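Section 5.1 Outputs to date
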Amino acid sequence: QVYVVESGGGSVQAGGSLKLACVASGYGFSFSRCALSWHRQIVGIESEVVSGVSAVGTTTYADSVQGRFTASRDTQKSTLYLQMNNLKIEDTGLYYCSASCVGWEQTFWGLGTQVTVSL
């Protein structure tokens, strides 16, 4: 079993910044062999993939966050980060991460951290 726990959410004014963290832990898995993703669930809208980071570090972003969000991973800390700058009201939502790891058939999901952006 791989456990995924997000943190760093909160309330911020539009134009502000937040940095989310996603820590993976468990027995018998290698963080360096996991593909990781940040997702968000916005009320009334289908969940979307915000950013993906492959095991070799290749990063992709949704068009809506390109140029404002930066994802990174720290293998030593088994942590995935999401630096979010110039936040907009429409970025409000529940942000959660997922880990798909070599040797494990299932994808592991966290419960998420809430981000609220206001005027």
